């Protein structure tokens, strides 16, 4: 290696080390990291947390008043099975029930207990003029509350079963009448990649790709602005004029990007490790909290390939945007003007993120020409190719092509940023007009 290259590498490493150590020691970095760790673990354990708060201790107490309705089914036992099956997905004898259904004969006393909170709800039965069962629910909850909705659904099932019993239809025939139909969904194009096999798998795949897109967007915006504010801070304090005596603008720019990028990767590792551990131990934690078979499943849709592509897109997307953020921030003299000068880049990033989000949710078809073309444009490919891959709409060859295009475009962005940086670091007291940008790119 020639002496000039060794000197360049040494200066880049020195600037990167200084940026890494200085920002890593700040109170903002420590508190942000701690906050993100807590949020990451909470999101990983969100199914357990939601179920813990929904179960309400030993189970919500539901009182049933049959009165003179004389139903042909055991309403209390049937309602108990239906409510707990609706809450957990399937009845589980080992799990604590979410609802405790009890029978009572005194409607007024039951309503009083519902008013003072010792009972969650009271369900009173009666008969309509044509002989069908009618239900009245007394509860402090609204009609859209979770308990109200599942009780209404269970009451409809009991009413149908009562009608069939009165019509003399045997129980075995009733089960066959309401057995779900066989329903299979296939792609219209025989050559298209197979989609999710079930609604649950589709939801899991969407959740994972959507979450990774959010993480990628937050990383690019957050760490890119770190670089921008670092440039503006040193320029505002005139420290940059001293540093430029020992390092070239290109070396200073590269060192800042490498230093902040290394710190970003360290922070993400610190956040992701406990979050992944929490996901892997989710079943054991749920069993410890709830006892028995907790029925909390690990999220589907996670694959080594998807996580690998996320890591590559994270590094390349950050490299692309951060060098442009640094070049743009060098054109302003005050930190207060940073957000204004980097706003166009932020809007471009937001545009790619929104299209990725809309295509993941189905508002924009994932295979539409707009999404496909944008997934190969370097400014948008980190978001859109990740979404397409998560939805099974991108082939490995397309992913590799998008990565190669992004890698090829980063030197172009670095050249543009270096030209802006070289002219902008010594530019004071001037507003960044289009003419100023043009002159900076020409090196004048």
Any low-confidence stretches, pLDDT <50, length ≥5? 89-94, 196-201
Q: Strand share of the residues? A: 5-15%
Question: How do the strands of the widest beta sheet line up side by side?
Answer: 2-1-3-4
Give the helix level as a range of percent.
55-70%
Pattern of helices and strands: HHHEHEHEEHHHHHHHHHHHH
pLDDT averaged residue by residue: 77
Quote the distance from N terminus to C terminus.
Answer: 32 Å
Structural class: mainly alpha
Number of domains: 2
* Shape by Cα distribution: elongated
How does the major sheet shape up? 4 strands, mixed
Instruction: Count every helix, treating DSSP H or I runs of 4 or more residues as helices.
Output: 17
Give the C-alpha Rg. Answer: 31 Å
Question: Would you kindly provide a written description of the structure presented here, covering whatever features stand out?
Answer:
A four-stranded mixed β-sheet has the order 2-1-3-4, with helices on both faces. Helix content is 65%, strand content 6%. The chain starts with a helix and ends with a helix. Helix 12 (304-329) packs antiparallel against helix 13 (338-361). The protein is mostly helical. The chain has helices at 3-24, 27-44, 46-55, 75-88, 107-116, 146-166, 171-177, 199-236, 239-243, 249-280, 282-290, 304-329, 338-361, 369-374, 381-390, 396-424, 434-442, and strands at 60-65, 99-104, 121-127, 133-139. The model is unreliable at 89-94 and 196-201 (pLDDT under 50). It contains 17 helices and four strands. The protein folds into two domains: 3-44 and 195-442, no CATH class; 58-177, D-Maltodextrin-Binding Protein, domain 2 (3-Layer(aba) Sandwich), CATH 3.40.190. Strand 3 and strand 4 (133-139) form a beta hairpin.
């Amino acid at each position: 290696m020639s002496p000039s290259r060794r000197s360049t590498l040494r200066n880049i490493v020195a600037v990167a080390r200084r940026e890494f150590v200085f920002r890593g020691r700040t109170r903002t970095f420590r508190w942000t990291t701690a906050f993100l760790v807590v949020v990451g673990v909470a999101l990983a354990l969100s199914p357990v947390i939601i179920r813990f708060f929904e179960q309400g201790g030993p189970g919500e107490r539901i009182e049933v008043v049959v009165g003179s309705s004389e139903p042909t089914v055991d309403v209390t036992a049937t309602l108990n099975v239906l409510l707990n099956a609706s809450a957990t997905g399937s009845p589980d004898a080992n799990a604590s029930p979410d609802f405790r259904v009890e029978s009572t004969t005194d409607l007024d006393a039951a309503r009083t207990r519902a008013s003072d909170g010792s009972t969650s709800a009271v369900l009173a039965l009666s008969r309509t003029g044509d002989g069908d069962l009618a239900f009245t629910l007394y509860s402090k909850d609204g009609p859209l509350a979770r308990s109200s909705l599942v009780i209404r659904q269970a009451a409809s099932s009991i009413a149908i079963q009562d009608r069939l019993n009165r019509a003399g239809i045997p129980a075995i025939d009733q089960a066959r009448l309401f057995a779900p139909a066989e329903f299979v969904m296939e792609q219209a194009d025989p050559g298209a990649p197979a989609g999710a096999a079930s609604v649950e798998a589709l939801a899991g795949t969407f959740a994972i790709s959507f979450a990774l897109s959010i993480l990628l967007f937050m990383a690019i915006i957050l760490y890119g602005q770190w670089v921008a504010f670092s440039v503006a801070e040193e320029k505002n304090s005139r420290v940059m004029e001293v540093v430029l005596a020992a390092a070239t603008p290109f070396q200073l720019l590269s060192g800042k990007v490498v230093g902040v990028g290394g710190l970003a990767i360290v922070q993400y590792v610190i956040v992701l490790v406990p979050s992944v551990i929490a996901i892997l131990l989710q079943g054991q934690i749920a069993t410890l909290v709830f006892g028995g078979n907790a029925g909390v499943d690990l999220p589907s849709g996670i694959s080594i390939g998807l996580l690998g592509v996320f890591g590559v897109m994270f590094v390349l997307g950050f490299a692309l945007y951060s060098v442009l953020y640094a070049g743009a921030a060098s054109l302003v003299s005050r930190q207060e003007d940073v957000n204004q000068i980097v706003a166009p880049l932020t809007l471009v990033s937001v545009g790619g993120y929104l299209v990725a989000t809309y295509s993941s949710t189905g508002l924009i078809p994932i295979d539409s020409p707009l999404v496909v073309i944008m997934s190969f444009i370097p400014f948008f490919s980190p978001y859109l190719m990740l979404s397409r891959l998560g939805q099974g709409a991108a082939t490995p060859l397309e992913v590799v092509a998008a990565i190669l295009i992004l890698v090829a475009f980063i030197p172009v962005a670095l050249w543009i940023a270096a030209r802006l940086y070289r002219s902008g670091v010594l530019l004071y007291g001037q507003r960044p007009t289009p003419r100023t940008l043009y002159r900076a790119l020409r090196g004048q």
